[in-house]
Amino acid sequence: MSWTVIQQSLPIFEKAFWLTLKLSCYGIIGASLLGLFASFIRYFQIPVAKQLVNIYIELSRNTPLLIQLFFIYYAFPEIGLKIPAQTSGIIGLVFLGGSYMAEAFSGGLDGVPKVQIESGKAIGLSNLQLARYVIFPQGLALSVPAIAANVIFLIKETSIFTVIAIPGLTNTALDQIGMYYHTDESLFVLVIGYAIILIPLSLILTWLERRARYGTFGH
Amino acid sequence: MVDTLLKVEHLNKAYGTKQVLHDINFSVTPGSVTVLLGPSGSGKSTLIRCLNGLEEFQSGQLSFEDQPIKPTPKTWQQLRQKIGMVFQSYDLFPNLTVIDNILLGPLKVQKRSKTEALKQATQLLKEVDLTDYADAFPRQLSGGQKQRIAIVRALALNPEFMLFDEVTASLDPEMVRGVLEVMLNLAKRKMTMLVVTHEMNFAQQIADNVLFLEDGAILEKTQGKQFFTHPQTDRAREFLDSMAF
Fold this sequence. Notes:
B: alpha/beta; 4-stranded antiparallel beta sheet
């Protein structure tokens, strides 16, 4: 393994690093919002919307991201919907992650003990107040570990963006190998690149997990 | 002042085909303490939970302050400000501090001013000897302390009627005393209460009336404390013996 080669390839990997990070961020934020929205629809049992959410979740969780990306990037243009590669990547990540996030949030909300709901009712809280002050804060805190796992999962999924030629970390490494046969160096930088994103993130998420459990209602 | 705070007439409840409450009739006068006794599975908890709408029932009429209760979620939500309840398990909201647990109802449900509600909450905390714990989280409290806070949380809404569902049943023996003292003080101040308990000495001390429940039916309804010394039915006598009373 040659340090010179690594040094020479760093600028291009740096660009790929920031791109991967940017697309992950958009994807995760979008997936979280979609998941939160879907879990609220489930929680409040909103008719019709609830069924749609269930169909979406089954579809999203039971198809690979690879195929989802093919659809968005290669099949949609057939019906006149041409979406640029990076946008396709984000849409794919949101579509995939939304269902995982929804399951994580729903799991948290379902995990709030029944007696908590009854105690809330017993002091006269309305359903909305019960949700706002008791069930959502506790449920969201309960769902943090699953959310954290999803965040990491979604970042790792960005490696599949290679198939629609987004120059993220994985694609760049494969390019470097294909062009210069710098296999060891490229794979080394690739691993380091993901580790720089994922290890600190994982630590932050663990810290957040502990923090999330307690708060106030801010009167 | 009304002479009947709560009236229960012909209350029947079934889970599927299994009837758990049979034609329950009784009334509670203001300022009185009614103790609900009976073996496990006799329907005490189910009955007490019917009285603030946590359980639905098939037939019967409840009245509060001479007003028939229409058992809709909306009515119950309003009424629960007047009918407080404390549960067996420590049920404080773990995501809120002690003071926020107490203030949630007064501020958000009753929309009272923060200064006034806080003043009352501080006074109540003082009465249960937990002033220093206002900003603590429930996880930092012992079971007995949590249960005293749960009582304060219910009292902060200024209820006219308090339901206690085996509030000492999951406490360590030495924690029980403190919780019972809080309830005895309430009784002294003429708070109307319905108490489910297995603490027989306490029951005798606090009871103005006794309801003895077996298999979902009221077997004995006695004024005063004679239940403990002169139970009318063999079943009640057996029950008192089994409690080593």
